[in-house]
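Hey L., structure's done. Input below.
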Amino acid sequence: MKLTERFEAGTWVRAAFCSEANFSHWADPRGTELEVSRILYPAPRSRHFEMIGGIFHSGDHFYLQVIEGPVESVEWYLERAEDDVRHAKFRLITADAAETRRFEPGTLRYVGGYAQLHALQVAHGLDSFNPYRYTAEMIEDFVALADEQDSARASR
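Output:
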């Protein structure tokens, strides 16, 4: 079901998705993390992109992203990600109405250093980064990592 069928027009939505980085047509012998970084190649700017903001983490061939914005823009972004050959096994983890804006529009920033993400995973009984095993609660904890980074930056 499309998000625009679940939510009224203009509803502020926060959605999380994961995928596996698809390297089959450009595999690089220098390693996985270089290949994961290719997913991050900037997308062309559009009105929809300027309306959404988000966070991501990548590692171990996996990619996790949380975005928010008007439902129409979030749906547009998710459809593009699902159709992007750089993403394999796209999975929508959560999509819910959001009361407040958590991310700066038009930006997508990396969240979760090794120690932070490892602590989050251990707290939920996981021993490695695999976003296909993430729950809605883990997504909230992942979003909280962005808040912690913002607080740390502000206190400097």
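The domain at 3-111 is CATH 3.30.70.100 (Alpha-Beta Plaits). The longest strand covers residues 87-97.

-- N.
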